[in-house]
Specification:
alpha/beta, TIM Barrel, eight-stranded parallel beta sheet, 14% strand
Length: 283
């Protein structure tokens, strides 16, 4: 079974060449995880490729280390960069990163009430993503999920990947009300969900546990719009091998076809560069 990790970060031990610029106060972002260490962990876990996500908590919008890593290991990594979505020259910045520097996607982290995800000032950013056919990963909080309806409807060619299931476990209310804002997005075919180890661990608090929650998600979105990411090293317990085992154990109730989609095949449909070279073109 193809295994792709769609959510991991790298943190350079060389803090002179790649200085930290902490965007969020997260303890994991003060550690180190070199690309070489991550490749070794991937090999131990039978992970073919990893989608590296710009570590906003450690570097904000400085994509330098991420760019160097995907350049050194193009057969193992693809990268998701970040730009300030409200910058005046956001279109030029993003185009340069995607076209010239070969990033596979971009990301925004908006976990405060402002700016709104449906703010008209975000339009140039969304439009550029749509024009470049660049998948957009979004880390946000449950009260803001409804704001995604505007870009999802206005730019139907824009693929929006909601990270960590929209952090719905942090919402108030019962499990049904917590899930509702996320499930409401299923009607947009360009909305994709990414779940992490944290998502699996907190699923026990939802009706029916992990099985009940993922049956509802698959019923709403389809397995082809769900994908797994380790969230390493933000979630370090057990290392990459332990996180892979945890995912398989939590989802062992799924039919083989659905598990294959969540484990890697769905990600390859969004990011074709994640498919191992030897398996491209195969069904």
């Amino acid at each position: 079974m193809l295994l792709i990790d769609t959510h991991a970060h790298v943190l350079s031990p060389d803090r002179t060449t790649f200085p930290r610029d902490y965007g969020l106060d997260m303890a994991w972002a003060r550690g180190d995880l070199s690309a070489q260490q991550l490749v070794a962990a991937m090999d131990e876990s039978s992970i073919s490729k990893t989608l590296l996500i710009q570590a906003y908590s450690a570097y904000r919008y400085d994509n330098s280390y991420l760019e160097s890593v995907i350049g050194e290991f193009p057969d193992r990594f693809a990268g998701v960069c970040m730009v300030d979505p409200l910058a005046r020259d956001v279109s030029d910045r993003l185009t340069s990163l995607i076209v010239d520097r070969k990033f596979a996607g971009t990301r925004i982290v908006i976990v405060q009430p402002e700016p709104r995800l449906d703010d008209p000032a975000m339009a140039p950013f969304y439009e550029t993503c749509a024009e470049l056919r660049t998948p957009l990963c979004v880390l946000t909080i449950p009260p803001k999920l409804k704001e995604l309806e505007v870009p999802l409807s206005q730019w139907p060619s824009l693929q929006v990947v909601v990270e960590h299931l929209g952090l719905i476990h942090t919402a108030s209310g019962d499990s049904v009300s917590k899930e509702r804002p996320l499930l409401d997005l299923a009607r947009f075919p360009n909305c994709i969900l990414k779940f992490s180890t944290i998502s699996l661990r907190v699923a026990a608090a939802f009706e029916g546990g992990a099985q009940g929650q993922f049956e509802r998600l698959i019923d709403a979105f389809g397995a082809q719009r769900l994908m797994w990411g380790s969230d390493y090293p933000s979630t370090p317990e057990g290392g990459i091998p332990g996180l892979v085992n945890e995912m398989h154990q939590a989802l062992d109730f799924l039919p083989h076809h659905d598990l294959a989609l969540l484990s890697g095949e769905a990600a390859c449909r969004i990011w074709s560069t994640l498919r191992p070279v030897s398996s491209r073109g195969l069904a």
